[in-house]
Amino acid sequence: MTGETDYLIKARLPNLKAMSEFLMHRLMSVPGVGSIKTSVVVEEIECAPGLINATLSDSRS
User: Fold this and answer.
1) Half-sphere exposure at residue 11, Cβ-oriented, CA atoms within 13 angstroms
2) pTM score, two decimals?
């Protein structure tokens, strides 16, 4: 990747409330994160191999 993007995170979340929770309370609380740019996929053609399916509660354990 080149340009303004430092990291690309793919996250599969169940709804917009969960996305907001992840972005505002988890990701923005990471030291060094100053801004976030999001893109939402409205339809998936094929699932990328190796994409981890986890819930927010799983990642807090």
Assistant:
1) 20
2) 0.59
Contact 10, 51 (CB under 8 A): yes
Dihedral of CA 30/54/17/46: which sign?
A: positive
Domain positions in the chain are 1-56
Of 50, 52, 40, 45, the residue nearest 15 (C-alpha) = 40
pLDDT in tens, the chain (61 residues): 567 778 888 888 899 999 999 999 999 999 988 889 888 888 777 766 665 555 555 544 4
Question: What's 47's DSSP letter?
Answer: P
Nearest to 57 by CA among 21, 30, 29: 21
Residue 9 CB neighbours (<10 A):
9
